[in-house]
Amino acid sequence: MSDIGLSGPGRGLFDAWSSFYDLEAVQRATYRPVHRAVMRSLREEHAASILDVGCGTGQLDADIVRELPWARVVGCDFSHGMLRHAADRSDRVRWVQGDACRLPFHDARFDAVVSTEAFHWFPDPAAALAEFHRVLVPCGRILIAHATSPAHWVEELLHAASRLVGEPFRWPTQDEMRERVERAGFTVASQEHIARLPGGLLFAPILTTAVKPDRHSASHATRRPAAHA
Ligand SMILES: C[S@@+](CC[C@H](N)C(=O)[O-])C[C@H]1O[C@@H](n2cnc3c(N)ncnc32)[C@H](O)[C@@H]1O
Question: From CA 173, how far away is CA 152, in angstroms rounded?
Answer without folding.
Answer: 6
